[in-house]
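Reopening closed ticket. The problem is back. First fold of the pair:
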Amino acid sequence: MIWNIYLNEAEIFIDYYWPFIHGKQCNADKKQEFTHVMGEVYSNLTDDKTLMLRDFHSPNLLFLENEDGFRKCAVIDFQDALFGHPLYDLVSLTNDARITIDEHQEKYLIDLYKKDFPFNNFQFDSLSFIEQYHILGVQRSIKILGIFARLAILETNQNYLVHMPRIICYIKRIMQSGSIQTLACWLNQNFKETFDV
């Protein structure tokens, strides 16, 4: 079920970011090609599941000054929570669309997360952790690009366009890692002006 959600979310990218950049709708053949590439990328994800909040990022995390320990961080906006990949919320935090997380901060947070991660409860290990992380990172980032483009096209809401360069930077970072080779080639061919790395 979750993989269908990922594919549906990928379609937001092709349905809205494509015309946002190219000025016209994506043709059916190109859309099918993209869906095939994304299916290939997602096939490398394990089917591990745990509770995932999906919107675990800066606007939904509140600092509570008068609390101690973990209670200092309050989480809001979790009505879309479902069972999904255990790294999804980490990706939401480290690839935040609204604040820049540089590579050093990202590595620090990943290392901190890995330190206490219960690998024996899941099908991936420390070595495949980063591949899983990158797949989810690109999935979430292309979805967000599509959502921001949709807001600009359908609602003439330009407010989120300021965040697009940050999201593109996250995608380029993942492309350079080599984890998503097929998708990286497709993005380079079809969005050269955006994703040329």
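Second fold of the pair, where the issue appears:
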Amino acid sequence: MQFRILGPPDLYDENGDRSVPLNAPKTRLLIGALLAQPNFPVPRSLLIRELWGATPPRQAAHTLNAHVSTLRKSLLRLEPEGAEGQRLSAREAGYALRAAPAETDAGRFREAVTAARRTAERDPGTACTVLGAALALWRGDVLGGGTRGPVCTPLAARLERERQEALEIYFDCALRTGRHQQVVPELEAAVAAHPLRERFHDQLMLALCRCGRGPEAIGVYRRARRRL
């Protein structure tokens, strides 16, 4: 099975042939909270705070069980329970969702970035390709954006920080391998999306200079000075 949270969350079978979208906001928060630390139980009290905040309804525990049951049914639609047992299990400490790193887009993203970091110095071309594929796993904001609670808020912030760091390495590797023309539009988009991240400005100026677009690079420098 494949779990996707780097964008609107959904589930796919192991072949990627069938999917189950998770459209309900509470279901999105639930699977995000469970995948923040897969294979480990998340306390019910924390899940309740994730789904309803500081003022949960009186029947929150019962309603949480109903949401868990709905999610479990979605999981079973794609992967009938086998020898390894249920994907989503109730434990004394809370609920746990079984998922290997390779079964989540966030896990695959992190593994690819780790591999690229190891090879970036000696083989920037390969690292650039690996990072490009990793960044392509992102389809939007973590869990599709929206209001998040005490588990999903730090999860989204952590993943977004890792994405920006991966972008910096990707651009560095691209510039080192002569792909300056290719990455100018991507760098312009990165600067527009993250105007306070100084490294993106530096990389865009370098790419523009290498493309023979010195006046535009000076313009980037001036705008960066005003912003930073």
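Update: turned out to be a display glitch only; the data is intact. The chain is about 60% helix and 5% strand. The longest strand covers residues 88-91. Please close again.
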